[in-house]
């Protein structure tokens, strides 16, 4: 695709939008901005740039297990829920790859994860004129005029080069999730988190064939890792360790699934804290610590088959907690305690995989000196307006938007793909509504208390 020419020369450039991070959320925003620019070229076009730390686009590469499928419909791609006629849909991608009719014959809403990742890379490639890879944002400073913050100076560090400062009127922070390990347990060559799973598996090719793996957790990642290791290492024992009695199915039934709809965001946003907590508790099992039913049944089928044949390699160590992990002689030793009897045991294995989930990265960390502008509420959580703008403690004409780390304000779909397309459109609308270049220039966000 031909790039849209930015409307300002680089030397005098004040970006309208600077995105920090370029995963699916900011990729969806880049597409929304690009489509806006193509429909209104010239002065109405927005000057946008996205800064991404990775050297190329990638989304949970370490869990692109060959037979794993998406858990959301392909219709919840980067654009369709915002604009079903967009040229950046998963259907447009299939057409471009020459697989549209084959996909239709497959009769599924849930493509392989590797295929959806290829769609995301395809989309990111078409937005390459808006993104700079290999740059890390190390500071953000507010720029004031008459006490009003009207822009931010963003310092970006690139390996082997002097840091550069980019000025922007709107920042959109979308820095994803960070892995969660149990307190006191450090990752190593034998102690992995599921995020890096396939990279570590590749490293095993150089060593002796493993005899045993231990997988901690009972969520989708844990079940997929367990299934993969059991299939790919036919000599190895795979011990699945978790505190539940058995894997629990993800609730993807249609009424419950509506918790991920755009309307649910409105309802959740306006609900009082007690109702918010209640909704999260009721519907936790749509997303957290749960497994796709088909995969549960497949693991059970294998386990039963092994009972019949008498060679049990897939061991389910339920009702157990991990007390600690330590390195032994060429192995790793995991100490377990039964939650039922208190009995302790030690398991020796070649590797332990913690599939213990993720947490959103706090946006304040990346905002440097601008963090003092951000209003915070209960538990130090950032206050976020319905349009995903972080509330500020002083008057400002500039804005910081947040994608992802908004479960406390916008609900359980925040970290997922479900609302990515619609949210990108809402953020773009908000930027256009509040842009002094496009309005009479008098619009100022009042400073507000949490
Ligand atoms: P998760 O659903 O948060 O599950 C984490 C698991 O780790 C839970 O079983 C939890 O047990 C356990 N755990 C947490 N802390 C622990 C500790 N200190 N000691 C022992 N166990 C601990 O994480 P996930 O499975 O990585 O899934 C995260 C998200 O990624 C979900 O949205 C999931 O759907 C998605 N995902 C999607 C795919 C796919 O599309 N194919 C694949 C993988 C993941 P408790 O419940 O007892 O806390």
Short characterization:
Helix content is 28%, strand content 22%.
Cα-to-Cα separation, first versus last residue: 44 Å
Which word captures the global form?
globular
Poorly predicted sequence stretches spanning 5 or more consecutive residues = 3-9
The value of Rg in angstroms is 24 Å
What percentage of amino acids are in beta strands? 15-25%
Task: Let me know the largest β-sheet.
Answer: 7 strands, mixed
Number of DSSP strands? 17
How does CATH name the architecture of the largest domain? 3-Layer(bba) Sandwich
The SSE order reads EHEHHHEEEEEEHEHEHHHHEEEEEEEHH
**What's the CATH superfamily of the largest domain, by name?**
FAD/NAD(P)-binding domain
The CATH topology annotation of the largest domain reads as FAD/NAD(P)-binding domain
Name the ligand types: NADP nicotinamide-adenine-dinucleotide phosphate
What would you call the structural class?
Answer: alpha/beta
Mean pLDDT: 94
CATH class of the largest domain: Alpha Beta
How much helical structure, as a percent, in the residues? 25-40%
Count of the domains: 2
């Amino acid at each position: 695709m031909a790039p849209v020419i930015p409307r300002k020369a680089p030397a005098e450039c004040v970006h309208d939008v600077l995105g920090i991070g370029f995963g699916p959320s900011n990729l969806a925003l880049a597409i929304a901005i690009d489509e806006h620019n193509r429909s209104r070229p010239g002065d109405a076009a927005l000057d946008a740039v996205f800064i991404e730390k990775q050297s190329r686009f990638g989304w949970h590469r370490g869990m692109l297990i060959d037979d794993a499928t998406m858990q959301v419909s392909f219709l919840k791609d980067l654009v369709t829920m915002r604009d079903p006629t967009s040229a950046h849909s998963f259907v447009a991608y299939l057409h471009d790859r020459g697989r549209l009719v084959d996909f239709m014959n497959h009769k599924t809403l849930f493509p392989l994860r590797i295929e959806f990742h290829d769609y995301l890379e395809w989309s990111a490639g078409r937005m390459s004129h808006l993104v700079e890879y290999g740059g890390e944002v190390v500071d953000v400073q507010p720029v004031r005029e008459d006490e009003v913050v009207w822009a931010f100076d963003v310092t970006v560090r690139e390996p082997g080069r002097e840091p550069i400062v980019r000025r922007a009127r709107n920042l959109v922070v979308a820095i994803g999730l960070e892995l969660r390990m149990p307190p006191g347990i450090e990752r190593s060559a034998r102690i992995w988190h599921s995020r890096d799973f396939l990279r570590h598996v590749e490293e095993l090719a150089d060593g002796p064939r493993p005899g045993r793996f231990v997988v901690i957790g009972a969520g989708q990642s844990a079940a997929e890792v367990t299934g993969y290791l059991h299939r790919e290492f036919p000599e190895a024992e795979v011990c699945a360790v978790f505190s539940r009695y058995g894997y629990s199915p993800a609730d993807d039934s249609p009424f419950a699934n509506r918790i991920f709809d755009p309307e649910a965001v409105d309802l959740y946003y306006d609900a009082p804290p007690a109702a918010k907590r209640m909704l999260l508790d009721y519907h936790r099992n749509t997303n957290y610590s749960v497994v796709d039913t088909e995969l549960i049944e497949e693991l059970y089928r294998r386990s039963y088959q092994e009972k019949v044949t008498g060679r049990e390699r897939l061991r389910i160590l339920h009702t157990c907690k991990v007390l600690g992990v330590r390195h032994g002689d060429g192995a790793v030793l995991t100490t377990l305690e039964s939650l039922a009897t208190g009995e302790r045991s030690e398991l020796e294995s070649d590797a332990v995989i913690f599939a213990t989930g993720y947490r959103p990265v706090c946006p304040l960390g990346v905002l440097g000196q601008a963090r003092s502008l951000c209003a915070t509420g209960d538990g130090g959580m950032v206050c976020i307006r319905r349009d995903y703008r972080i509330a500020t403690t002083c008057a400002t004409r500039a804005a910081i938007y947040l994608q992802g780390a908004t479960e406390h304000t916008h609900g359980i779909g925040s970290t997922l793909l479900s609302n990515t397309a619609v949210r990108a459109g809402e953020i773009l609308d908000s930027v256009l509504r509040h842009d002094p270049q496009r309005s009479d220039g008098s619009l100022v966000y009042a400073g507000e208390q949490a």
